């Protein structure tokens, strides 16, 4: 199952790079813990579509707290300091 999911993730990362040309791609979430970063990079190298070079691809750090910070930023943006 992991390999099948990784195929879809790799295709999604590729499309994201083609459309938006990011300087870095950060992977996070529960499923990514079992992903092989080297396999992802090698697959992207083989399928890349006219990209001069791949952006940096990394796993997210402090994933337990990032959701909390994102929620706090959302609340501050949409509800301000009430």
Distance between the termini: 46 Å
**Helix/sheet category:** mainly alpha
Determine the mean pLDDT: 85
Number of helices: 3
Using the CA coordinates, give the radius of gyration: 16 Å
- Tell me the helix content: 55-70%
Element layout with pairings:
Elements: H1 2-20, E1 24-27, H2 37-47, E2 56-59, H3 63-79
Parallel strand pairs: 1-2
Helix pairs in contact: 1-2
Task: Give an overview in words.
With 82 residues, the chain is mainly α. Helix content is 57%, strand content 10%. The protein has three helices and two strands; from the N terminus they run H-E-H-E-H. A two-stranded parallel sheet has the order 1-2. The radius of gyration is 16 Å and the shape is globular. The N and C termini lie far apart (46 Å).
Q: Which characteristics define this entry?
A:
10% strand, 3 helices, 2 strands, 82 residues, mainly alpha, globular
Condensed summary:
With 82 residues, the protein is mainly alpha-helical. The protein has helices spanning 2-20, 37-47, 63-79, and strands spanning 24-27, 56-59. α2 (37-47) links the parallel β1 and β2 (56-59).
């Amino acid at each position: 199952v992991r390999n099948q999911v990784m195929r879809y993730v790799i295709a999604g990362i590729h499309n994201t790079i083609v459309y938006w040309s990011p300087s870095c791609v950060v992977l996070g979430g529960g499923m990514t813990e079992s992903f092989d970063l080297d396999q992802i990079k090698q697959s992207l190298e083989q399928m890349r579509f006219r990209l001069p070079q791949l952006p940096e691809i990394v796993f997210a750090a402090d994933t337990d707290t990032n959701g909390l910070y994102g929620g706090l930023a959302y609340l501050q943006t949409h509800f301000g300091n009430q």
